[in-house]
C-alpha cells in the first residue's frame, strides 16, 4: 500500500503566486565563475518589481558546485552570503524563497549515486543548508531541479535520505521534492507517481514539484504553443495525483511565448490552477532575473519599464483573486 506524508498545515491556504529569479546558476560550466559577470544574484529591483505585481514566492536557482566548492566540504561563504542576503530582502518584502539546487542531479557533471558523487554527499549538502536556514519558515528547501537519474525509485530513495538528514537537524522548513524525466506534469503519475508516493516526512511538510511547458514537446524551447484545449490535459495528471494522495503541489516551472495563442494557453493554465486551489501550494513562472534580456519567456519588464504580455495575463488573473 502506498503511503504519503504531505503537508497539511496549509490545507485552506491561498495559492502562492511567484516566479523563478534565475541568475545564480548561470554559466554552470564556469566554476566558481565571476560574480556579476558569469552569474548574478537578483537585485532589490527584481524583488521590488515582482512583489509589486503580487508575487509572494521566489524560486532561487542555486548551483551546487558554487555553493559547496568541495564535495561534502564547507559551504562557500560569499555565495552563501548572497543567498542569505536575497532571502532577507525577499522576507522583508513579504515573500518566501525556495532554495532550488539547480544542478540536474549532478555535481561537477557526475550524477548523484555514482562513485564520484555518493548519495551521502547529496545528504551532506542539505544538512549544511538546513543548519543555516532550518529555523526560517520563509525558506523552502527545493532538493533538486530536474534530476537526470534514470530511475524514479532510485531518485526517491536519494531524496528520502536528504529529507531524513534535514529533519535530524531539527529544521522546520517545507521540503520541495522533484521527479525524474524532466519532472513533467503531463506524465507525472506515469513516471514518478508510484516512487514519490513512498516519500515520508515526520513533519508532514512535503511539497511535490512538477514542471510544464506548453510548446509542442513540453520542452520550453519554442515560442509557439499547443492549442488552448490541450492545456488542462497537460496539468491534470499531476493535479489528479495530488488529489488522490492528499498532497500539495508546486508548479515550479512553466512559461509561454508572447504570441496570442500562447497567451491564451497561459490564461487557461492559470485558470485551471485556481479552479483546484486546495491542491496547489503555489506556482513559480519561468522566468525572471537580471540576465535574460529578450528571452522569449521572460517576465522582466521591458526597457521602458512596461510589463511583458505574459505579466499582463498573470496580473489579470491575480487581480481577480
Automatic annotation (TrEMBL):
It comes from the Bacteria. Gene3D superfamilies: Glycosidases. Signal peptide: none annotated. The keyword NADP does not apply. Residues 32-287 form the Glycoside hydrolase family domain. Keywords: Glycosidase, Hydrolase. Belongs to the glycosyl hydrolase 5 (cellulase A) family. This is Cellulase family glycosylhydrolase. The lineage of its organism: Bacteria, Pseudomonadati, Pseudomonadota, Alphaproteobacteria, Acetobacterales.
Amino acid at each position: 500500500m502506498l503511503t504519503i506524508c504531505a503537508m497539511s498545515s496549509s490545507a485552506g491556504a491561498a495559492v502562492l503566486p511567484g516566479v523563478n529569479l534565475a541568475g545564480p546558476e548561470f554559466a554552470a560550466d564556469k566554476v566558481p565563475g565571476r560574480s556579476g559577470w558569469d552569474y548574478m544574484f537578483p537585485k532589490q529591483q527584481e524583488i521590488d518589481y515582482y512583489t509589486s505585481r503580487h508575487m509572494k514566492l521566489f524560486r532561487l536557482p542555486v548551483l551546487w558546485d558554487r555553493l559547496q566548492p568541495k564535495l561534502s566540504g564547507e559551504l562557500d561563504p560569499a555565495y552563501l552570503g548572497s543567498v542569505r542576503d536575497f532571502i532577507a530582502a525577499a522576507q522583508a518584502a513579504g515573500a518566501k524563497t525556495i532554495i532550488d539546487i539547480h544542478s540536474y542531479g549532478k555535481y561537477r557533471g557526475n550524477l548523484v549515486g555514482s562513485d564520484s558523487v555518493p548519495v551521502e554527499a547529496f545528504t551532506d549538502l542539505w544538512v549544511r543548508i538546513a543548519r543555516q536556514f532550518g529555523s526560517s519558515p520563509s525558506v523552502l528547501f527545493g532538493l533538486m531541479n530536474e534530476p537526470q537519474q534514470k530511475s524514479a525509485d532510485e531518485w526517491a530513495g536519494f531524496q528520502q535520505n536528504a529529507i531524513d538528514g534535514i529533519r535530524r537537524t531539527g529544521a522546520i522548513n517545507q521540503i520541495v521534492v522533484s521527479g525524474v524525466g524532466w519532472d513533467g506534469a503531463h506524465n507525472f503519475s506515469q513516471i514518478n507517481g508510484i516512487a514519490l508516493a513512498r516519500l515520508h516526512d515526520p513533519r508532514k511538510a512535503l511539497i511535490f514539484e512538477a514542471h510544464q511547458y506548453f510548446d509542442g514537446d513540453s520542452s520550453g524551447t519554442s515560442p509557439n504553443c499547443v492549442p488552448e484545449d490541450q492545456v488542462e490535459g497537460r496539468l491534470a495528471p499531476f493535479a489528479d495525483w495530488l488529489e488522490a494522495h492528499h498532497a500539495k503541489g508546486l508548479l515550479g516551472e512553466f512559461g509561454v511565448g508572447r504570441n496570442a495563442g500562447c497567451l491564451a494557453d497561459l490564461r487557461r493554465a492559470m485558470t485551471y490552477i485556481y479552479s483546484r486551489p486546495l491542491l496547489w501550494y503555489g506556482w513559480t513562472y519561468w522566468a525572471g532575473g537580471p540576465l535574460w534580456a529578450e528571452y522569449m519567456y521572460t517576465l522582466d519588464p521591458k526597457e521602458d519599464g512596461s510589463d511583458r504580455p505574459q505579466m499582463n495575463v498573470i496580473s489579470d488573473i491575480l487581480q481577480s483573486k
